[in-house]
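#structure-requests
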Amino acid sequence: MLIAHYAHRLPADYDIEIIRKRAKTRGHLFDDVHELYFKGFLLRERGRFGAIANEYSSLYLWRRDEGFRDFLVSGRYKSVTDSFGRAQIETRVVLDARRGDAGEARFAYKEQRDIPHDADLTTAFAAEIEHNREIAAQPGIVASAVGVDVQSWKFTRTLLSEKEPSGAAGEEAYQVLYLARPLFATLAH
């Protein structure tokens, strides 16, 4: 499995309704993409839920890296580059991903944590997998996935949740404008 996330920072005076409309009109195009568990059309709106800038973003959970490759080489990413330019796409190898009991993904959260240089990786991976399972079982969680970046040695957790952001310092929260769920029901629970 692979997590892919990219973001486009938007000008302060950007008409956010353009992004809302884009998610509404383009979201369904991902409802049956082969190899995709889900794709979130995400928004950070300056002044709301702790965001200091406007940002349009996409979050994917791919079953296999071939699905992500096919997305890139088939021209599906072209609509993004034509509208917003080429973004840096962060990818993470998934250690664990699972569904929660909640139904409507209203918000997405992303948290990153360095893996200490002296950490035993086998133990660290096992602990993150177990922690992810605990998080997925919490009320209000639609899905939780944890991945690892083996270049910078960081864990990245992405959550889909019904819960509004708490406003805690460092909380990176996004409004979910649309969630395509082609293979979502096949995720472990």
